[in-house]
Amino acid sequence: DELYAQKLKYKAISDELDHALNDMTSIASLQPT
């Protein structure tokens, strides 16, 4: 089903963004301000 494939792709992308965001925040919190 096309819609299902789109949902899966969207979920994968948002998971990737979530991980990237978490990495950036942990890196940012290690940086001295």
Describe the structure.
It comes from Rattus norvegicus (Rat). This is Nonmuscle tropomyosin 5. By secondary structure, this protein is mainly α. The protein has one domain (1-33). The protein is built from 1 helix and no strands. It has one helix at residues 2-30. The termini are far apart.
CA gyration radius, whole angstroms: 15 Å
| Estimated helix fraction | over 70%
The helix/strand order is: H
Shape: rod-shaped
Number of domains: 1
How large is the count of helical segments? 1
Protein name: Nonmuscle tropomyosin 5
Provide a quick synopsis of the model:
With 33 residues, this protein is mostly helical. The protein has one helix at 2-30. The chain starts with a helix and ends with a helix.
Keywords:
33 residues, mainly alpha
How are the SSEs ordered, and which strands pair?
Blueprint: H1 2-30
